Amino acid sequence: MKSQWHGTCDLRLFKSSRSNNKDIVKTIHQAKCTAPLKVMRVFNDKKDGRCEIPILHSAGGVVGGDQLTINVKAEEDSSAICSSVAAQKVYGSRGRSKLNPQGSWANQKCFFQIKKNSDFEWIPQELIVYQGGLFEQNMTVNIDPSSSFLCVDLVRLGRTAAEEQLGSGVWRSSLEIFRDNNQGKHYEFSDRLELSGEVLKSIHGLEQKPVFGSLTWITPKQIKQKDLSDLLVECRQQRAGLEGFMTCSLLENGISARYTGSSTQSARFWFYRIWSLTRILRKLSMPEYMRIWPIQENPSRDTKCTA
User: Fold this and answer.
1) What ranges do the domains of the chain cover?
2) Structural contact between residues 206 and 198, judged by C-beta atoms closer than 8 angstroms
3) If phi over 0 gives left and psi between -120 and 50 gives alpha, with beta otherwise, what is residue 184?
4) CB atoms within 10 A of CB 183
5) What confidence tens digit (pLDDT) does each residue in 91-149 have?
6) What are the start-end ranges of the H helices in the chain?
7) Which among 34, 30, 32 is positioned nearest to 12, based on CA atoms?
């Protein structure tokens, strides 16, 4: 069995001073990684100059004791989307003993600093937690009032195709998004979740459904509340024709959406539609599937998600 990893990925995103088209501000990057994390080929050939960054976990999955740390600094006027090259697998925990019967945890920490007039989207592929897997993720985001941040989490609890459930495993998540002001930190969103044990069965939890997803969008502060309220109505309309239970609510400066069900495809389609609506509201280009994403179906509804 492989030894424990502590992989790191440090990314800096900034606008390029060189461009053939003065109307397009291209975002370029600098990266420094340690195994098992690696930045694959980066593209910034989109019409809006957005940088497309794929991160590879070269070890093929994580086990108890593994640690991953991802630091992103999005400099002024930068624009980027970051994703994982493949679905991440969390194997059953290791290091079990009488003193530590559950075993050791795998952990991923993300620190994102998003500066003035920047736009950063964090949309990794799904996380699959095998039976007995222990995984904790912590994400901290410091965002300028003029900037935008969108993130998606999609997790499958157990390999359901093999009739496997999570069992004694645990998925735990912490997300904190804040802006600095004269009084210190102003929290835009703070969310702590743990999926395990009775929560997996309870009618107030997942009701035996293996898939959980969340989308969070924090907007630039200049977005009007009326526009956000209209966006909320449109997001809820995007649930039509999809399998699962979907909710969406307003934040002070943004929206929060949740999915529970059995279909990662339905969750992905709904989040894509919401993602498209956020781009439309800000008069940006429509999102496109990244080259690294294997599933390229069209999730849009003709009546809504058109530029």
Assistant:
1) 61-281
2) no
3) left
4) 6
5) 987 766 666 667 889 999 999 999 999 999 999 999 999 999 999 999 999 999 999 99
6) 225-237, 264-281
7) 30
